[in-house]
Amino acid sequence: MNNRTAHRGFTLIEAAVAIAVVAILSGIVIPLVVKNMRDSQIARAKNDVQVIAAAIAAQLKDTGVRPTLAGGPNLANGGGAAATGAGQSLWRSGPAGVVNVAGLGPAAGNSFLNLFTATAQVAADYTAANTMFGTTVNAEFSYRGPYVGTDVAVKTDPWGSPYYILGYNATSQTVNGPIWVVCAGPDKNILAANRTAGANGYPVTWDQSAATGGTSQDDIVVRVN
Prior knowledge:
By secondary structure, this protein is of the alpha+beta class. Helices cover 31% and strands 7% of the residues. The chain has one domain (9-224). It contains 5 helices and 4 strands. It has a 4-stranded antiparallel β-sheet with strand order 1-2-3-4, covered by helices on one side.
């Protein structure tokens, strides 16, 4: 091997081929990485809303008290009103200062910390109307919290927004309507029809259709009862 051969560098054609190969591989790999990342985010959000829904169901079974505008199980502070000004029962996760979802805003005292993490029973008994089975039953109930850990109560979704509980639009425990656990998804938006409570509470079905403008299609929701 002579010195001329030993010091030979890349030719322009070789460099161009190498760049083209890297570009092709990047075009294949990067979309797969992005898709896997999004799938992982969605999987975490689905798991989180299921955990929150299970906590609500356990509280309802133990206390007979739903998270309403007036308050929650174990005399937790009230849910507060949504940013629309309507008297909607609204609870949210996350620390103060988290990014709010379009159309919803945290009110004082509506943290999941208040709702789920008390360690001792405040009320001696619960005689509030229990509508878990669609009828009013006055009986003694007992708070057996905490129902989630502090780490869950302050958790935000994978896109930095709170998780929300949309409950009832009144103080009564006998108001009919579902309780929704909601992750607004990457667009941080919830369709107005979904986040607005009527006379009988929130909608019984969650609208995620393209016909309504596409918003809420990426929501991750669980209906409790």
